[in-house]
């Protein structure tokens, strides 16, 4: 009896093991066959366009976002670069004009025009620049010895353009005035040098040819013999 019971139990356990092995093998095979099918239906994430103005604060960026267009960046530079160059050129012109305006030559010529009898007769009193921001045209090169400027002036009676030209014949010489005239608005040209040259000895430097001996000892202590 005992041997029969042992044989029945052993047979039942063997049958259970066979069922477990078969069920495990079937599950593994179904999983292996299902994986390729699942991989075939996997879709990639689509590219997302870059944020536009007005979309709100950008708190997170996806790594597969769309890159900005190169054409739009190039077009932006083509619009701003000419504007930047124009501003630089305008600032340079304004700086050079201010340098001429602050020169003592312009102040001296304007003062001489105020005290000139011919200038006051045609322009009147209160002679000053015609514009709030005067434009000094022409060349002003004291180092090379060339001055040729003109600017608009006005008085209580009329307005016009004053021209002043002077040059230095030698590097150690004095400036000589070649033109100092006033052209009124009606086209009349007035020579202001007929009454004399008020700029003689004012525009330019000192005549060094006459003071060579004094210039060598100026600034040094002289030893008594």
UniProtKB/TrEMBL annotation:
Feature: compositional bias, Basic and acidic residues: 58-68
Any GO CC annotation of this UniProt entry: mitochondrial inner membrane
Record Pfam families: Coa1 (PF08695)
GO biological process: mitochondrial respiratory chain complex IV assembly
Entry protein name: Cytochrome c oxidase assembly factor 1
Region ranges (Disordered): 47-69
Origin: domain of life: Eukaryota
């Amino acid at each position: 009896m005992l041997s029969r019971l042992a044989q029945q139990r052993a047979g039942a356990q063997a049958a259970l093991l066979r069922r477990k092995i078969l069920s495990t093998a079937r599950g593994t095979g179904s999983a292996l066959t299902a994986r390729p099918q699942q991989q075939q239906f996997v879709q990639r994430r689509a590219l997302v366009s870059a944020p536009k103005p007005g979309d709100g604060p950008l708190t997170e960026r996806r790594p597969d976002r769309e890159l900005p267009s190169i054409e739009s960046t190039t077009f932006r530079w083509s619009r701003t670069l000419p504007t930047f160059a124009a501003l630089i050129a305008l600032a340079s012109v304004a700086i050079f004009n201010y340098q001429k305006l602050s020169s003592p030559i312009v102040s001296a010529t304007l003062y001489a025009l105020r005290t000139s009898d011919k200038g006051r007769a045609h322009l009147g009193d209160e002679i000053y620049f015609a514009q709030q921001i005067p434009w000094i045209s022409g060349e002003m090169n004291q180092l090379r010895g060339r001055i040729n400027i003109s600017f608009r002036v006005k008085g209580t009676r009329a307005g016009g353009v004053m021209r002043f030209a002077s040059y230095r014949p030698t590097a150690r010489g004095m400036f000589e005035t070649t033109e100092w005239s006033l052209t009124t608005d009606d086209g009349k040209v007035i020579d202001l040098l007929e009454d004399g040259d008020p700029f003689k000895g004012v525009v330019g430097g000192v005549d060094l040819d006459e003071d060579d001996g004094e210039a060598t000892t100026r600034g040094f202590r002289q030893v008594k013999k």
